[in-house]
Amino acid sequence: MSGIRDVAELVTSAASESPDRLALVEAGGRSLTWAQLDDEVGRVATGLAGAGVVGGHRVLIAVGNRLEFVTSYLGVLRAQAVAVPVNPGSAVGELARMLDDSGARMAIADPTTAAAVREAVDSLESPPRLVVVGEASYDELRSEPARPIPPLQDPEKLAALLYTSGTSGLPRAAMLTHRALLANIEQCAQVEPPMIHGDDVVLGVLPLFHVYGLNAVLGSVLRRRAKLVLVERFDPQETLAIIDDEACSVVPVAPPVFAHWRSEPDLRERLGPVRLILSGSAPLSPEVVEEFDERTGVAVHQGYGLTEASPVVTSTLCSRTPQAGSVGAALPGIELRLIDEDGLPPEGGDPGEISIRGVNLFSGYWPDGAEGPDGDGWWPTGDVGFLDESGDLFLVDRLKEVVIVSGFNVYPVEVEDVIEEVPGVVEVAVIGVTDERSGEAVVAYVRAPGEQPDAIAAAVRAHCALRLARFKQPSRIEVVDELPRTITGKVQKGRLRGIERRRTLGLLE
């Protein structure tokens, strides 16, 4: 990858050597060769410049898994602007907050997201320009022939803002440079045996706005010049049909997919073309891996990653030998260490907070680079684990209270703030509980003195439906008289989690 300075240059390189090979295919039938993709990326970059978007300006992208997401994202990078991919399912309030926080000069939406993005844009005092795929505004953006743009000179320039929790409750944007994105793509490419070959057909069902789909999947496909099959959303049966129809050989997924496919009687036959399944975003239990391997004969490899690491940190493909419960060893060029509460190595092989170092790390949180790597390049993840003698990492717990629903982060304080807007609610505590299908689910404990429990639960549910994306909405609402507290008055969420564990074990009615 010598001489490549930004992710969009990978497309130009592929187009010069394999112009007529397919690069992207939509499950619905549209496709782009490498030459066509390079041209579309150039057109978008040219259109952005013509619209006054210059280096460093932010462009919010609320687009699903379709060709225009890829061309918009890479066009923004080629224009040396900053891409801000967001969840297409975000509620209007969430979109408005991210638009305002990022200071986006332009927002790109698709037909599914246009109404919500338009409402969010209209709510701002200084609204960005709105461009909608399928409307004249997007056609105009890409109407001019691509013009040469001077290559990126400084790989430390900001490339993307990706919203995540950081070390606080409300989502903040991790600042990922061109250097960080390219570094992790190259670190993944150095893994042996390879995650992706040049002749692989890769399933693109993971959301591209999420760092896993954006850089681990799309970035690796661009690096290896494989073919990516874009799928708008996961449906258990339709996705299996797409895997068969498109002869997908590599299938990157999130853990909840395994629960959806668990009851499929002909799973081995339906996964016939698949040589490798990659699982990330959340831990996968050893029992699920073993059962899936026995039923299908397909290798399942998982890893550990974070938005702030662009994202992949470890992979079981890097392990000396497979070990149940491990998320693998560090990728080439990434260092791991464990620290206790005093910042020292834990004694006697005890678990500790996972700290990482590597050129794939982010540059801190937007806008001022706060809480980035320290002076020696180390960054504490907020996750707890232990390392065995072979270097394999085993996850134990999370210091953060983030709830991971179908691989997506939900930040309890964000949900709590929304629920507290409901009249009658005086206090709320949100936790995550184990869920067979989504990995975890959101449960809200609500205190609303003098209110009818059924009525307040219904009001909370209706308000959350208006204010939060579906995966952030509570799966269950418990209306209680009191919340358990510490001696200093802090809500004891650990006791609430204990109640939920007892409920799961059938010890509570």
TrEMBL record:
Its EC number is 6.2.1.3. This is Long-chain acyl-CoA synthetase. GO terms for molecular function: long-chain fatty acid-CoA ligase activity. Pfam families: AMP-binding, AMP-binding_C. Residues 14-366 form the AMP-dependent synthetase/ligase domain. It comes from the Bacteria. Keywords: Ligase. Residues 414-490 form the AMP-binding enzyme C-terminal domain.
